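Hi W.,

Here's what went into the run:
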Amino acid sequence: MNGNITVTGMVISSRPIGETDKRVTLLTVENGKISAFAKGAKKPTSSLLAATNPFVFGEFELYVGRSSMTIVRANIKNYFNEIQNSIESVYFGSYFLELADFFAKENNDDRDVLKLLYQTIRALCKGSIPNRLIRLIYEFKMLVINGEYPNCFECSVCGSKENLTGFSFINNGCVCSECAGSVRDHMPLDTSAVYTLQYITGSSIEKLYTFTVTDKIYEELRLVIGCYLRMSVDVTLNSEAFLKEL
Ligand SMILES: [Zn+2]
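Here's what came out:
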């Protein structure tokens, strides 16, 4: 395939190549994850200088060569510059990009991953709910999109939809009060935590970042979601180390 194509997406990573060029990874609607060169994009006069920074979202025209793609021009819809206002936002945002990079694949239908990432960066800029909660919601919805999540709508032992008061990692889901005694790794879970996991699983991506939780519920969710994330993400993400310092 030779010629130019236009894709819509977000810059999820950008690395300098030599003195003047950049190598950019885009997460796109049309082609999943794409790697492209941006010639001269490090030059102060280049129209691609700001357009090839991480978090930037818009339309990118690419020249498709035999073995690589090159960004020809960009029509940017959102630079998400607000992220640069605090180092904490930069750390969280960088982690969100890196996690999306981990889950997205080349030539894959990753539209939901892109949609989730976009709404998550928006929530981070907006700042109406705590960053650490945005992180948990993002992580869990990413697992849901990838099909690697527990069943929180019914008891994982008897199938009852009532009185879900616990969780079992071995059974991969919630546990009702009747079955609590029969599960070896039973962990009590507040009904608000159960409801939150159900909400994240079932909610549209646009409505994810609309609630807050108490510290107690946050800690319960962190335990469950953190464990599932570690099972799915078998590498150490560079940006995670920075988050630990916050
Ligand atoms: Zn049960």
